[in-house]
Each structure stands twice: as C-alpha cells, then as structure tokens.
Design brief:
The complex is a heterotrimer of chains A (151), B (176) and C (108).
Chain A: H1 4-10, E1 16-18, E2 26-32, H2 36-45, E3 49-51, E4 61-67, H3 75-83, E5 89-94, H4 96-100, E6 122-124, H5 131-144
Parallel strand pairs in A: 2-4, 4-5, 5-6
Antiparallel strand pairs in A: 1-3
Chain B: E1 14-17, H1 22-31, E2 36-45, E3 50-58, E4 65-73, E5 78-80, H2 89-100, E6 103-105, H3 108-111, H4 136-140, H5 151-156
Parallel strand pairs in B: 1-4, 5-6
Antiparallel strand pairs in B: 2-3, 3-4
Chain C: E1 12-15, H1 25-29, E2 35-44, E3 53-64, H2 73-77, E4 83-86, E5 100-101, H3 103-107
Antiparallel strand pairs in C: 1-4, 2-3, 3-5
The chains are: A alpha/beta (151), B alpha/beta (176), C alpha+beta (108).
C-alpha cells in the first residue's frame, strides 16, 4: 500500500510488481510523460506487472520508472516525485527521451535526458522499448540492486 | 479531403481565405456546423516572407474535418482574432503569437506584453518556431557526418547540410 | 517471453563490419546523429596487380542507443547491407556511457 506521503505526490498512482517473480518485492511506479508510458501500460494489460495489494509484504525497493520526454518546464515536478519516493529507491530512465532527449534532443523545450535532474540507476534504450525490456530491466535492478539509494 | 491510398503524398484541400474575409468566413463556417476548433497555428515560409495561418475544425454531427488557411505577410503579421467565433481560439492564437510573433487583433491576451510566457520559459528563444531561429543543440553539437576518412571524397562530394539544420544557422556560411 | 517477438521486429540493429566500406551514408542520413564512424584508408596491392588500390579500413563504428529512434533510415540507406534489424531488444545498462555500442557489441 503506498504510504500517504508518496500517494499525495503520485496522485494515488499505483505501484506494481513483477507477475513472473512474486518473491521480488521491487515495486514500480510509472511517471508517464509521453509515448513510452504506453509500453508501461502494455506491460499491465498483458499481465506482466500486477498491482501491489494491501496484503503484500513491505517493498524492498521503490522504483520510479520515468517514461517519456522530459521538458524543462516539468523538471521541478520530476524532482518532487523523486524526493518523495520512499527509500530504498531507484529510478529507471525508460526510453531514448529519458536517456538523451531522444528524437527531441535538439528542442529548445526538452531536457536532454533525466539524469541531470534525478539520479538514474538503469537506462533502457528504445523508442519505445518493449514491455519485455521493462520487465528485464526491473529484474536486473532487483538482482543487481547495486545502485539503489538508501538512507 | 482526399487521401491517395497508394501514393506517398496525402493531399488535403485547404480552403484559402483572404485576410479581410478571415473572421467572417470562419464565423459563417461555424454557423454551418464546423463548431469544434481542432488547431489554429502557423507555418513559417521565409523564402516567400509570409506565414500560412491554418485552422482545422471538425463537425460534431459527422466525422468530417476541414482546413482553412490565410496568407499573412511577415512584415505586417497581424490577423483578426477568432475568439468570438471559437472560444478555444484564445489559447491557439496566444500560442501562435508566442511561437511565431503573429498578433491577433481582438485577442486581448495576444496583444498584452504582460501575458507572455504561456508555454515558453524566460530562457527559451523568442518565436522559436520561426525557421531562422536555430536549434541551439544542433548548432553546438559537432555533426558526425563532417568526418570523412577518404581524403579524395572530401574535395569532390556535394556539400550536405546536417539533417535537422538550415544553412543560415551556421555563421561561417560555408555549409559546414 | 522474448522468444515470442516477431522476427521482423525492430529490436536492435546489427552491423556486419566486413561489409562496411565507411561510405558514411548512414552517419550522414541519421536524423538524430547517433552514428559515428572512424576509419582510414590503406594502400593494398593485390597479387598480380600493377598498382596499389585504396581500401577503407573501419576503425570504429558506434551507435548511441540513448539517441536512436529506431527509424531504420540507416538500414535502408546502406548500399552494402551492412546494417540489419534483429528482433531481440537490447537490455538496460547502469551508466549512460554504456548506451554507446561499438563494433563488437553491434556485431554480436
């Protein structure tokens, strides 16, 4: 169950866990900014991710999946979402826009990636990446778990 | 509106209106059922020193959409506002002014210097969708295509502007 | 899961380095400027030839997967079919620098 503080920033956004590995307690929330969010949604509709239930054990890691183009105007919001994410926490740059600005790297309004705004633990290439790539990246974070942010 | 299914070009009929007739023609169209403003924006045509201001509206009684267009000279980039025909025009005209510098007479927000900054931050370039305004990142980033390992080719090959750029953005003017 | 991906999917782009002549067409046509090539020319004299010829030697070929938008223009434009789609997508990496793939990575 999302903590009240987190829920207030995420607007009640759901947390999701891997369907294939119920023992892995990494919970992911999508910060859907643009098209890549559709691939996160596809992972949901295909049952690759399941909503975290009230009865689920405490997460071992809170994962913020940033999917879509980050504009300069939105940087404070993404910072706020990261700051209020409970620890231990990690962020995933999902798709080319989050890595570099993607096709919009030349735009006056687009940030060239998210990693100058929040720390990033894994970058998933793609435009957009497939849902399978999202699942594999969550698994790699869960299994490696080297660069998570812990207080 | 015609779509040529097997050709590479999709052609859409634009109904061209004179600047003087712009407001009255769209008011008439609105009365005839074109009630849903989809987009009102501009196209910069620097070689012709003009803008094409284009509007797309939909009907709600069918799936039809229609384009209207008007030529606005760049030396006098002003056009009548459509706010009293389409309420949504207030936002689109404000955006078009911010991006292209075209003013819309009768759109209070479009004329008010204090009302800038709908979308653009203070750091953003002025009228960024004008084609002469360079994309800074493209100008500042070395183009990988400049490198050519074959010295024989460099002298003879046709000089190519990097994709996504216009030659006028580069100060030296030698096409690099 | 990965095995169910259709064979024609744009998972990633593979390079056949022996087929690459460093013509630079892919580099110059890429809309996001994500390909870089470094090469040099060498003079080789084939057996029995009267004079040497110039051949291109590919030193480096990189694609920055953080920029690639999977448009496929590079694959289409290559006159030697040195670039091709492969269905399996690339995995995530821990550092942004690791998104830049070189010849070995692209050939694999």
């Amino acid at each position: 169950m999302p903590t009240p503080a987190y829920q207030s920033v995420s607007g009640g956004a759901r947390q999701y866990r891997l369907a294939s590995h119920p023992e892995i307690r990494v919970v992911a929330t999508d910060l859907g900014l643009a098209c890549c969010a559709v691939e996160f949604a596809a992972a949901l509709t295909r049952g690759l991710l399941l909503p975290v239930a009230d009865a689920d054990p405490v997460p071992t890691l809170h994962l913020l999946v940033v999917s879509g183009t980050l504009t300069h105007a939105l940087r404070p919001s993404i910072e706020a979402a990261w700051e209020r994410l409970p620890e231990p926490r990690a962020a995933m740059a999902f798709g080319a826009c989050t890595a570099s600005g993607g096709p919009y790297w030349d735009s006056y309004s687009v940030a060239q990636g998210i990693d100058e705004t929040i720390p990033v633990q894994v970058y998933v290439p793609g435009c957009p990446p497939r849902p399978e790539a999202l699942i594999a990246a969550i698994l790699s974070i869960a299994e490696g778990a080297a660069d998570v942010i812990r207080s | 509106m015609t779509i040529a299914a097997n050709s590479v070009e999709i052609t859409q009929q634009i109904e061209w209106i004179s600047a003087e007739q712009w407001r009255d023609s769209l008011a008439s169209a609105h009365r005839q059922g074109w009630v849903c403003l989809d987009v009102l924006t501009a196209i910069d045509r620097p070689e012709q020193r003009e803008f094409h201001v284009v509007l797309h509206a939909n009907r709600v009684d069918s799936a039809l959409g229609q384009w209207w267009g008007v030529v606005v000279p760049q030396h006098d980039a002003e056009l009548a506002s459509l706010v009293d025909v389409f309420k949504a025009a207030a936002w689109h005209e404000r955006e078009t002014r911010e991006m292209f510098g075209i003013t819309f007479t009768g759109n209070v927000v479009s004329h008010d210097p204090m009302a800038q900054g709908l979308l653009l931050s203070d750091e953003a370039p002025v009228t960024p969708l004008r084609k002469h305004v360079p994309l800074g990142a493209r100008v500042d980033t070395p183009w990988p295509g400049n490198a050519d390992p074959d010295p024989r080719r460099s002298a003879t090959r046709r000089r190519q502007a990097p994709p996504g750029t216009r030659p006028e953005w580069f100060e030296t003017g030698d096409g690099q | 899961m990965i095995e169910d991906i259709a064979i024609e999917s744009r998972g990633t782009i593979k390079l056949s380095a022996p087929d690459c002549t460093s013509c630079m067409l892919c580099v110059r046509e890429c809309p996001v400027w994500c390909i870089e090539i470094d090469s040099h020319t060498e003079q080789v004299t084939p057996e029995g030839a009267r004079r040497p010829r110039s051949v291109a030697v590919l030193d480096a070929f990189t694609i920055d997967w953080g920029l690639c938008m999977y448009c496929g223009i590079c694959v289409e434009v290559c006159p030697f079919d040195a670039l091709a789609w492969a269905p399996s997508p690339r995995g995530g990496v821990g550092e942004a620098e690791q998104l830049v793939a070189g010849i070995e990575d692209l050939s694999g």
